[in-house]
Amino acid sequence: MLRQVSRPILAAIVVFSLSGFTIVWDKPASEAGSKAAPQTDEARMAAYADANWQDKVVPVIEAHLVPLAKLRGELAGGADKAGAAYGLRPEGEANPWNFAVSGEGKIVKAKLKSRAAKLEVDTDDDGKGDVTIQLGPVIRGTALRDAMPFIDFTDFRDQIEFAKLANALNDVAHAHLSLPESDPTGQTARFEGVFTLRGDAGTIELVPTKLSIGG
Amino acid sequence: MTMTRRNFVSAFAVAACLLASPALAEDKGLMAIITPSHDNPFFKAEAVGAEKRAKDLGYDTIVLVHDDDPNKQSEMFDTAIARGAKAIILDNAGADASVAPVQRAKDAGIPSFLIDREIKESGIAVSQIVSNNYQGAQLGAEKFVELMGEEGPYVELVGREADTNAGIRSAGYHDIIDQYPDMKMVAQQSANWSQTEAYEKMESILQANPKIKGVISGNDTMAMGAWAALEAAGRTDVILVGFDGSNDVRDSIVKGGIKATVLQPAYRQAQLAVEQADQYLTSGSTGQQEKQLMDCVLIDESNAKALETFALSE
Fold first, then answer.
1. Inter-chain touch B123–A91, beta carbons under 8 Å
2. Residue from the list A154, A160, A167 with its beta carbon closest to the beta carbon of B291
3. What is the top-level taxon of the source organism (chain A) (predicted)?
4. Which of A128, A161, B128, B190 ranks highest by number of CB atoms within 10 Å?
């Protein structure tokens, strides 16, 4: 039975069944005369991020959302304990925890005219910023990617493609934000998003997935 | 196949290595440890870390060096297969070229556990444990931008093109640096991870661009070469940041020379690969995904003294 299946089709079946996602070639790679898929890493990862955002990424965040104030209390008992209860991270030694959090606070500083625009928010009423909300368009880090249980590094060609995936997810997060047009300093920010816990959580660099400003 | 003089010599060296390895194998059998040249202390640390852990766990070992030559690496796989190795710990000689030998070992029933560098296929090796080069490069680039005061002409030294790590580090550097419009890259050249090549490249770059303010390097051996060239030219004012966390660069940081580097936990990574090999051989599974990332740590004057042989003491 299997013998009757042509080789390109068989290859497509193997690719389809082995990997967590599907790559659709316009024509078999062998015919394209190149080993490379007919898209750049960037374009392919952007398509992957778009395709999975609503159905897979958002539900993971919603399911793991923890109020920031509550998480801070839990973190006092140790990162691994809090991580086991609320965190998300890939398997492997010494991978940092990622958390999906919700919170609100007063915007104490805003940097809007930048490729890496950001808001600093005071969420514990001490007058100092303790959460940095990354507005982009350049959003740093791999928190969104590394928080997703359905994303496995093994399914990706190499670190370069995998890095592009992190950036692509950050780009989609950015695209879903409506950004303040004037200086929002002094107003209240309500947010949901993901961050990677590094060190003592003194300052959190959040990738926002929801943001509203006002009041 | 004609045997070149070089092949003959390396085959001879392999034979010598085999004879020199302890005849008294313990119960668990042989583990082959294959890395690039130990001239780079990074690879030596890997080999030493893996060998020590393997012996601790009851394996006999052979340690082989492929010198980044895929043909040599291929011969070493044949040797490991012929010797009936139970597992192979590998820092490979090229992301594409290494797929075939790892597959050959797999077909012979020998699992491979990769460290430091990836290969372009999954499902062939049991583990691929690599440093989170992208995260590490971003750490190095952030420090570099801060030291540069967010502005000025700089140079990037890139690693060997066939190595994925060269590309990913460069991408990590630029994803940070390119956010600062006043940071101007005036030259970007590959020195193939080599200290001597970096010295020569840095010399000529300096002649063409005497006003450079900083250099960011894809690894520490190239950083050492570049620093020697800068010293020779009386340009120790140039800000230099490396990648790896070698003892040489640590010493330079402590003396106020090179400003920073990024530690890859090479020693631990090699030990972890051996532990996963042991677990796989004894239980049939590592309990981990094939491809695993390990985070890197920024090393500067604040923590350089705690660094020893690619590990940071607590």
1. no
2. A154
3. Bacteria
4. B128
